[in-house]
Sequence to fold (207 residues):
Amino acid sequence: MTSTYPRQSPNLHERAMAASLQLTDSQGRVPSLAQIAEVIDVPKASIDPVFSEGRDLLVAALERSLTILIDTCTRAVVKVDPDDPVAQFTAIGEAYLEWASHHPAQFRLLADTRRLDYRTVPRLRRYVDSLGDLMTRLLMRAREQGRLHPREDVEMLVLSARSFAVGAASLLLDGRLDGRLDGASGLDSAKRMMRDFVLRMARSSKP
Fold:
């Protein structure tokens, strides 16, 4: 479910969700169930019992990808020193870039709310909000440890970091980071940028 739909997959709904992502990403609008059925070459009636409209199918596809994002970030955080919230915060950023590199269509659809605004869909928003809450808690711990200024605006730092991550992921997917830093791959360069951003952010906020 990255860039093409798996015609060979025995799971009809997997194929339908993948096609929904691809069509929305390429056409700039949410496809109908009839369009999706035509693309994967199945009767529309075979999709109708589970999904009532194309938007429902797209939401299901994005929700599945967001569960992968949360799992990826959680696994990344637990691998880092639990007493170093700044390192854990950095790990989330790097995990996000990994996720975006493997789920480009999903990243673009969530980053550009003109086609489907995840903020209006509780099923999707709860995943994004939970990740934001985790980032906030980590920076609050960093502030309590003296790693950030005692009056630092943590909410603003989280927003800045999220904006940076989205921008870095966009550059990565556009191929504009390939070979930019000592010949490193785009993903490695994006991760290096993320580490540098967080370290500079924490350093500049110290009392």
Helices lie at 12-27, 33-40, 54-78, 85-102, 104-111, 122-144, 154-173, 186-205.
